[in-house]
# Entry
Amino acid sequence: MAKLWAGRTSGFTDKVADDFNSSIAFDSRMYKQDIAGSMAHAAMLGKQGIITQTETDILVEGLAGIAEDIDKGKLAFDISCEDVHMFVEQTLTQRVGDVGKKLHTARSRNDQVALDMRMYVREYVGDLTSKIKTLIAALVSQAEKNKESIMPGYTHLQRAQPVTMAHHLLAYCMMLLRDVERFEDGVKRLNVSPIGSCALAGTTYDTDRAFEAKRLGFDSVCLNSMDGVSDRDFCLEIVSDCAITMMHLSRLCEELVLWTSLEFGFVELSDAYTTGSSIMPQKKNSDMAELVRGKTGRVYGDLMALLTMLKGLPLAYNKDMQEDKESVFDAMDTLAKCLDVTAPMIATMTTKPDKMKKAAAGGFINATDLADYMTKKGVPFREAYKISGQIVAECIGKGKTLEELSLDEYKIHSDVFDSDLYQAIDLKNCVEKRTSEGGTSLTSVQKQLAFVKGAIGL
# Structure
């Protein structure tokens, strides 16, 4: 079949070259955006008198019919067409005759595909941010249930200071809220219409780019036609946002893998989000969490592929840029699937406050509070720090916790110790005393919960 671009060449290419060159297998998912863009373009051509209003009506009606038939499964994509743009134009011409050939006036596939990508990504980002908010809501729900569940907070994966499970989960809420902000901020730069840039230099026709942009929901038009057809910054930015969000999911899922182990035992995942072993009947594996962690590398790869593809391209459009779609689609699809499984996995997990409290009690995580106790009684912090370390070492040697050491044993190290010491190092009090902004006390956690709920409209 001769191509729509036949003229300078015969329009006939080798089948191997055809298959290599074709993008319809993956860009066909943008058919709604392509048709919507073409309808707006036809309306603009009619408004400007470049074609007649009758011709505009024929084109718009024909395009609407194609969209409806694809939606209903009555029209299948012709894989012999090079891309979705050619498929739509060719189908339109078959249905409405020669007037269909006028649709491509004052535009190029270069600005057409840039338009389609911006519209498609813009819509998908809305879906992604909605899914992120669903995950945040699941984390909030678990945090509400665990506002007083004391657990060890860790640094270097070593028990450090007591926190609540709610405080820990809210840290992920803050990360995910920033992810939402990044996506939304990226849409501001994405939402600029390239249509009318044509191949690279603009057009000799008296077009109205602002009319077309407004009709398609764009805030403005790109101000340089070469930039309009060759810019894929928005793809890089959105895939980068996907990679950052995947990193946050991976960190969360890494903790789930740890917390569900026998060594931790802080949570148990629903059977619906775990698997068993083919040989070991006792196993309950956190496979969904592990897969999310693993798929993070895949999205990183998508970002690196885009950066590498773009880094050496001269202006303006180059065929290399066809490679943007699979990376962008894969990154967004992968993130969407991971969010779809992580949100219910969090929502249905069971926390084990007793196990967390036991772990907190056995790790000397109130040693900082012991040092603070002495400091508040006039001992310089560095000296208090050293004394606390010596007391911890003594406890380890005697097989005791800080709470189990007698007051006489404490007084050997310093005269400032008194009976109020035990209240100061009680784990619940250690948590409640951390009333600083953003801390782990109940009052602070309540404020954090209110902030997060407000941010996602709960």
